[in-house]
Amino acid sequence: MADMGSTFLINGLLRGVSHEQPLDLAILREYGISPAMAGHYARTGWLVRMAKGVYCVAGARLDRDQSLVFLQGRIEGLHVGGRTALAWQGVRQYLEAQERPTMWAPARGDLPEWFTERFPGSLTSLSLFDDATKEAGIVTPPAVTDGVRVSSRERALLELLREVRTALQLQEARELLFATLGLRPAVLGELLTGCTSVKTVRLFLMWATQAGNVDVDALRDRYALPTGSASRWIGT
Hints:
Mean pLDDT: 92
Shape: elongated
Number of domains: 2
Distance between the termini: 78 Å
Strand content: 5-15%
Structural class: mainly alpha
Radius of gyration: 22 Å
Oligomer: single chain
């Protein structure tokens, strides 16, 4: 009877969930599966234990976007940002043989090994915006799975500029900013006002002035932008 009950529970799970998503204990409990039973299913080959309290269906190929949605529930503020967010919205300079997605989150942390083994990428742990603005400009683009949090082009550009460390990164960031059209002044105004990196704001405004893809003078007139000392502002 115990075996029949065990088979009934795992069959219910296999019918009820996507085989491409990670499963935590909360999801398993919805199907009547306790932590002890999850361990049993892992030992008998029905599930694979990827980390403490995290499983997947045996033989399944995890989906990147479903895995991201899962991680968003475990890492506060996690979203796809910077260069990757721009690429997912059609703004890219170079094609990569294998995409290495860049995620962002305000608090220090690491992507779990089970994720990076399947989807090589990186997590940038930086707080680029104040509390009032930290969720601004995060969207789900049309071509992306519903629920995946992605920086808008405006936010992604600021994240990209904040990350630059080398001359090559600086050049690529400049090229991407020049290639990004249709920037929305209202979204930019909110993000720039709440940005905690003066260097990032100044660099964006300087290059946007050169690119001509946004009215920088109008932004500065309408919003109190954190550009530091007026004597240090360079607009050309």
